[in-house]
Design a protein that fits this description.
The protein is built from 9 helices and 16 strands. With about 300 residues, it is an alpha+beta fold. It folds into 2 domains: about 110 residues, 2-Layer Sandwich (D-amino Acid Aminotransferase, Chain A, domain 1), CATH 3.30.470.10; about 160 residues, D-amino Acid Aminotransferase, Chain A, domain 2. Strands 7, 8, 9, 10, 11, 12, 13, 14 and 15 form a 9-stranded mixed sheet that branches. The chain binds 4'-deoxy-4'-aminopyridoxal-5'-phosphate (PMP). The site of 4'-deoxy-4'-aminopyridoxal-5'-phosphate has 14 residues, from α6 and β13.
């Protein structure tokens, strides 16, 4: 079932009634922050980490989230419950709120908070089995000293533009480089490569969001005994990698089997990627903040 009830600044409203002022600076200027989370089997995965990132993003743009993290936890689990969802994607948005046509946020009275929970699969199921095509794009990742990639702001134009470039090029996802030509991330996902048994991912200071899935994969890889390195690499390193995969809350873990027309190894998702995807799937179903604690307790009893 898709979401019927949306949390909108203090109340649950039906999807068709969930509307925001055209004077909201989130709409007028992309002034606000957001998070994307997932609930698996009634458990919200890494809720605390997502809330930490949301509040850090908000702090960075001097936006005060009008709820405590405890309140936000209840709002998020409450939205899942209200829609009777077991497994779904959750979007949390905090916008600056309605102001006037000037861009000064001082004119905005109060932030608006929206929580949506609904089923979402980023790519068709067969791409998870086959792997996707990745293409590098001309647009560079935002420089950290201009608009930090760590701020998950409503200004996602940089990412949208690369998605347009990927669509134009006929590939499934974009590969973004930074202004020095080093690989950073995809349009909404982090990148890993595997070479001679070692797993590499770029350090986030090069211009990638510190993905929560990324951090989970690093943890799982280390627990499983893989050699894991955060190290800068270039397109060339991606072309000649044994495996390439992307991670993100929405995409989860997905292999890339073609990069700029270069087939990666034998053109099929590799062993390490498949192993980490399995470990990830296990971890997400056994970890997380419960949305239905009473049901779980009565099942256990
Ligand atoms: N990079 C960008 C630009 C993103 O928008 C996302 C999605 N939040 C990611 C990486 C992956 O982060 P996470 O694993 O926390 O979803």
């Amino acid at each position: 079932m898709n979401s019927q009830w949306i949390f909108l600044s203090g109340e649950f409203v039906r999807k068709e009634d969930a509307v925001i002022s055209v004077y909201d600076h989130g709409f007028l200027y992309g002034d606000g922050v957001f998070e994307g989370l997932r609930v698996y089997s009634g458990n919200v995965f890494k809720l605390e980490e997502h809330l930490d990132r949301l509040y850090d993003s908000a702090k960075s743009i001097m936006l005060e989230v009008p709820y405590t993290k405890e309140e936000m936890t209840s709002i998020i689990t409450g939205t899942v419950q209200r829609n009777q969802l077991e497994s779904a994607y959750i979007r949390v948005v905090v916008s600056r709120g309605a102001g006037n046509l000037g861009l000064d946020p001082a004119a905005c009275a109060e932030p608006r908070v929206v929580v949506i929970a609904e089923k979402l699969s980023m790519f068709p199921e067969e791409l998870y089995d086959q792997g996707l095509r990745l293409g590098s794009v001309a647009s560079r990742r935002n420089r950290p000293d201009v608009l930090s990639p760590q701020v998950k702001s409503l200004n996602y134009l940089n990412n949208i533009l690369v998605k347009i470039e990927a669509n134009q090029a006929g590939v499934d996802e974009a590969l973004m480089l930074n202004d020095q030509g080093y690989v950073t991330e995809g349009s909404a996902d982090n990148i890993f490569i595997v070479k001679n048994g070692t797993i590499y991912t770029p350090p986030v200071h090069l211009g990638a969001l510190e993905g929560i899935t990324r951090n989970t994969i690093i943890e799982l890889a280390e627990e499983a005994g893989y050699k894991m390195k955060e190290q800068a690499f270039t397109r060339h390193d991606v072309f000649v990698a044994d495996e390439v995969f992307l991670t993100g809350t929405a995409v989860e873990v997905i292999a890339a089997v073609d990069v700029d027309g270069r087939k990666i190894a034998d053109g099929r998702p590799g062993e390490v990627t498949r192993h980490l995807r399995t470990l990830f799937k296990e971890r997400v179903t056994t970890d997380g903040v419960q949305c239905y604690p009473d049901v779980t307790a009565s099942k256990a009893a």
